[in-house]
Amino acid sequence: MKLLNEEQIQKESKKNVAEESFIYKRRVYCFIKRLLDIICSLVGLIVLIPIFLIIAIAIKLDSKGPIFFKQKRLGLRGKNINIYKFRTMVINAEEMINNFSEEQKKEYEENFKLKNDPRITKIGKFLRNTSLDELPQLLNILKGDINIVGPRPIVNDELHLYGSYAKKFLSIKPGITGYWQTNGRSSTSYEDRVKMDMYYIDNRNLLLDIKIIFKTVGVLFGDKNAM
């Protein structure tokens, strides 16, 4: 068995201390983040009740169908979670995909969305442009399915677009807003979106989360280039 000299021992000791410090800071960060998520989602659900009612009435008056839309998305470690949103599309939206033109099908396959989606209702367009359709996800945050800040939750068919970064992407909870959503949003390519998600995962901390939240408010009331 090879014995370590004094210099090697010091290096190993510093390495262990650094690793323990990182783990401790990460645990503190996760605890504070979860605590803030619970408080903010609870307050949000209570304060926004009047807005929920107004949106619900508008959706029912605009088109037939349910008020809320539920879709399977990938959560932490690839767990399937139900993400809640206000319905912004007609009730036969999935069937309409078969009637897309070849150009539309190609755009949808590449980005999992259309720039001018014919399935979106009138009130749905407004809700998407203002991101108000995302408000029901406050319930997802309260349940612990997602965070306020994190990579956008994706459907299973999108995971292959992350390539070798797929496992890393699933290593943290998705969020209702994030680094990508506030830095280009729909104007960015999926490749750039992946890079931004990886940047956030590598550099996430409370200060960055707070900056993203404030920037989200700016995007909502300024740049209308929403999802």
Automatic annotation (TrEMBL):
Q: Where in the cell is it found?
A: Cell membrane
Query: Which spans are transmembrane here?
Result: 35-59
Major localization listed first in the record, in broad terms: membrane
GO (cellular component) term, any one: plasma membrane
Keywords for the protein's UniProt record, in alphabetical order: Cell membrane, Membrane, Transferase, Transmembrane, Transmembrane helix
What Pfam families does the record tag this protein with? Bac_transf
Does the keyword section mention ATP-binding? no
Q: Give GO terms: molecular function aspect only.
A: phosphotransferase activity, for other substituted phosphate groups
According to the UniProt entry, the coiled-coil residues are: none
User: Which positions fall inside the Bacterial sugar transferase domain?
Assistant: 33-221
Q: Into which family does the record put it? A: Belongs to the bacterial sugar transferase family.
Q: What is this protein called?
A: Sugar transferase involved in LPS biosynthesis (Colanic, teichoic acid)
> What is the native source organism of this protein?
Clostridium fallax
Taxonomic lineage of the native organism: Bacteria, Bacillati, Bacillota, Clostridia, Eubacteriales
